[in-house]
Design a protein that fits this description.
Distance between the termini: 61 Å
Largest sheet: 7 strands, mixed
Oligomer: single chain
Mean pLDDT: 87
Strand content: 5-15%
Structural class: alpha+beta
Shape: globular
């Protein structure tokens, strides 16, 4: 028997039985609304289920259907997404809702080709919507499913030929009753049992046909990708406050953080003066400030970058607080409705300006990660003095 077709012979019923017994009770599993399922899949990309849960409920309360999302201004959509990060997902979802209105009369299409034509919808998301919402036999091949099938077939999972083999196995498995549950069973198995490290083979419903388990080295499949070496970086942040509000800058190509809005920040070469760079940055925004002491330090990870962040206090030189293009003033209590990054939240917490996360997700620990540090006592320098630019750890 072709090993790539082995799973379909005896795995399907075992997976469905296991799923009905062990699946987690998640809100997007209580609906067949294609829009709600679409929202959940967009949020779950690169994000843990525990983090997504409160955001999912809040987002659907704000935009209960495609029409409401399509009609909403981008700022409102990003605000409802604030704290989840990876804001391109929210923009793509927003654009996709508008495309559904324009092309499909406001109804999420059931045809996979039509789903794939929507902004931000790739093969996995299209397969998930088609199978879960419409009961179509379409595979949904995410990282968890790839890992499960790679182990069942003892495939390396690397390269185009391996991808075709895994996809063919997924297509074989999904043919039959309840394709949506079958896809979710594979995802759940990968999340709860067939984990990247220390898989719980004794609790797996398909261990009897798993070739990786039979090899004695289930963790050896699929072959792990080389991890990129972490790239260190140094960032200086200007914390400018005025009458209970904090200055935020719109994200630009040189911005080191990843929110739509963030505290003004600049990459700092090791030998450079961070205060001088911050003055230049704020000058380009048309804001006159007097920079002062370093008040906090923290760390943050973005993809393969590991940033050391130094936070400097600043004071407006003028009594009037301008709001030029590319900048805005936001009250700390209103940050929950602004699309800021986890890095900006971390900076504000480290500086003692933000005690708890605004909005849902107060306890989230996103994959961008990093570690939070306590506020540093200010150096003995007055407003306008210059830092040496050297970290002392």
């Amino acid at each position: 028997m072709d090993r790539s077709r082995q799973p379909a012979a005896g795995v399907r019923s075992a997976l469905l039985r296991w799923y009905r017994r062990h699946r987690r009770d998640l809100p997007w599993r209580r609906t067949r609304d294609p829009y709600a399922i679409w929202v959940s899949e967009a949020m779950l990309q690169q994000t843990q289920v525990s983090t997504v849960l409160p955001y999912y409920e809040r987002f659907l309360a704000a935009f209960p259907g495609v029409a409401e999302l399509a009609e909403a201004p981008e700022e409102a959509v990003l605000g409802a997404w604030s704290g989840l990060g990876y804001y391109r997902r929210a923009r793509a979802l927003h654009a996709g809702a508008r495309a559904v209105i324009e092309r499909h009369g406001g109804r999420v299409p059931r045809d996979t080709a039509d789903l794939l034509a929507l902004p931000g919808v790739g093969p996995y998301t299209a397969g998930a919507i088609a199978s879960i919402a419409f009961g179509l036999p379409e595979p949904a091949l995410d990282g968890n499913v790839r890992r499960v099938l790679s182990r069942v077939l003892a495939r390396s999972g690397s390269g185009a030929a391996e991808e075709r083999t895994i996809l063919r196995a997924a297509r074989d498995l999904v043919r039959g009753p309840e394709p949506g549950d079958l896809n979710q069973a594979l995802m759940e198995l990968g999340a709860l049992v067939c984990t990247p490290r220390s898989p719980r083979c004794g609790a797996c419903p398909v261990t009897a046909v798993c070739l990786a388990r039979a090899s004695g080295d289930p963790e050896g499949f699929p072959v792990g990708r080389r991890t990129r070496r972490a790239v260190p970086g140094r960032v200086a942040v200007a914390l400018i406050e005025h009458r209970g509000r904090v200055l935020l800058e719109r994200r630009g190509p040189a911005t080191p953080f990843r929110g739509a809005w963030d505290v003004p920040a600049a990459e700092v070469p090791e030998a450079a003066d961070p205060v001088r760079l911050l003055r230049a940055l704020l000058g380009r925004l048309g804001i006159r400030v007097r920079m002062g002491a370093e008040i906090a330090r923290t760390r943050h990870a973005i993809l393969n970058r590991r940033l050391r962040i130094e936070v400097f206090a600043g004071r407006l030189s003028d009594r009037v607080a301008p709001a030029p293009d590319g900048a805005r003033w936001v009250r700390l209590g209103d940050l929950g409705s602004v699309a800021i990054s986890g890095a900006t939240r971390k900076v504000l917490r480290a500086a003692g300006r933000l005690v708890a996360e605004p909005g849902p997700g107060a306890s989230q620990n996103r994959s961008q990660g990093g570690t939070q540090s306590a506020p540093r006592p200010p150096r003995r320098c007055g407003i306008g003095s210059r830092s040496s630019g050297r970290s002392k750890r």
